[in-house]
Amino acid sequence: MNRLLMLLIVALGCISCQKPLNIQRYRQTVLIDSVSLDLTLTPQKKATGMSYYPVYYIGPTQDTIRFGKQLPSHGEFEKFPDIVLRYLDQVTLTVDTSIKLTNLTIFESHSIEDGIDVKRMDSIIKEPAYAIILQNQSDSTLYIGQFNDLGKVVMQYRNKLGKWTDIEEPAYAYTYCSTGAKTMFLKPKQILVAKLIQRKGDFDALCRLKFKNFDQVCYSNTFRFKIDSSQLSKIPKKDF
Fold first, then answer.
1. How many domains are there within the chain?
2. Confidence class of residue 179 from pLDDT cuts 50, 70 and 90?
3. Is residue 2 part of a domain?
4. Strand residues in the chain grouped as ranges (E)
5. Structure pTM?
6. Is 151 a domain residue?
7. Between these two residues, 184 and 79, which has the higher pLDDT value?
8. With the C-alpha atoms ordered 21, 22, 25, 26, is the resulting torsion angle positive or negative?
9. Three-class SS string for 193-232?
10. 63, 92, 129, 213: which has the highest count of C-beta atoms within 10 A?
11. CB under 8 Å to 121, separation ≥6 — which residues?
12. Is residue 42 part of a domain?
């Protein structure tokens, strides 16, 4: 009896030590993020002019989607399918600012000890974020890019004249070495969940995301977003 009681106490202790899941809803789909929601976080200033939208889930559309760590950036190279989607008329890109998430960036270091590659965790940065949803409703496979972020997506803002302008460079433009990089595809009827990291800014702008595939472009819905006014003086000159 005492042993059973001790096991029960240990089990309850383990449950109480677990961080709460962040449960959100996107339309009819329940999103369960194992990275708990931290409402005490404050946005940080954007450090570079490069886009960065980390991907956390790629897979079938289901009633419940679970995700936790960011998808791995390196791994086995996946060959291109025979038919790759070119047109984006059946692709939707959505930014849902009602879905509050926490982005978790883990920095690691590697060292060789006794001929063995040893990996250590250096630091963890937590940042508030929103949900990005990319859906492929077509019957063909959509090429997303390499590594584990939406490198072909950039943010735009609408200026006083009503013109939409890129305020960052696509991450793939800075990719000089992709040895061992994973190739990301969004297969027919699949959904992708990424995170839009909130930033500290002094300018409240009307923004949207732009995804370019070959000569086709897909835009997200518009949303209010804090950006730094210095970004407006560094508008990319490239027309990617």
1. 1
2. low
3. no
4. 22-26, 29-33, 55-60, 64-67, 91-113, 116-136, 142-146, 153-158, 164-166, 183-186, 190-197, 203-213, 216-219, 223-227
5. 0.82
6. yes
7. 184
8. negative
9. EEEEECECCCEEEEEEEEEEECCEEEECCCEEEEECHHHH
10. 129
11. 106, 107, 108
12. no
Write the single-letter amino acid at 206: L
Q: Which of 180, 214, 226 is nearest to 78 (CA)?
A: 180
Residue with tokens 């890129």: 166
Beta strands 183-186 and 164-166, pairing class? unpaired
State the residue for tokens 């508008």: 235
Task: Tell whether the torsion through CA atoms of 59, 61, 62 and 65 is positive or negative.
Answer: positive
Please state the length of the chain. Answer: 240
- Main-chain dihedrals φ then ψ at residue 13, nearest 5 degrees: -65, -40
Q: How far is the C-alpha of 104 from the C-alpha of 126, rounded, in Å?
A: 5
Residue 53 lies in a domain: yes
Structural domain of 90 = 19-37+48-108+118-234
Is the torsion defined by CA of 30, 127, 43, 193 positive or negative? negative
